[in-house]
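Task 17 of the worksheet. Students: predict the tertiary structure of the chain below and write it out as structure tokens. Keep your answer in the requested format; marks are given for formatting as well as content.
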Amino acid sequence: MRTNILRRLMITLLTLSFVVSSGVAFADQFEDSIAAYDRGDYATAVRLMRPLAEQGNAQAQNGLGAMYYNGKGVAQDFKEAVKWYRLAAAQGYASAQLNLGAMYYEGKGVTEDFIRAYMWLSIAAAKGDANAVQLRDAVSKYMIDQQIIEAQAIARKCEVSGFKQCE
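Model answer:
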């Protein structure tokens, strides 16, 4: 059950990871990286996306994280995926928050931690992300009430601190 829910959501997450950026400065290069990805030229997609991610573009960071998660254009590396998701999540990027929550839920690249998963998923859910709501509710089935209360408190602290006190 847990694996089926997660598998469906991870497919959705990969799709969401590549929504086209609205930022003018990065839009062309990001769009080019998405076009390369869509045609299966993952090496080019990574080559175009990495500089944007390194410059702090949250959407590119999230996309690069997805490429590491799936091993597209790079060796599959869950810890590297978490690194990029975390950078984008700390900028308030909801898709990355959802992806980071999923990583904590799966225990890939990080130690499985339902409290951290619930926390990141709650933050993304508060931004209206329906997938985050669904996964957060799935995670809650493995938690006791006190853990949910703790996760909610950490989520508030994380948001109030501008994503500086999330761990």
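Marker's comment: Residues 16 and 95 are 7 Å apart (CA to CA). The radius of gyration is 15 Å.
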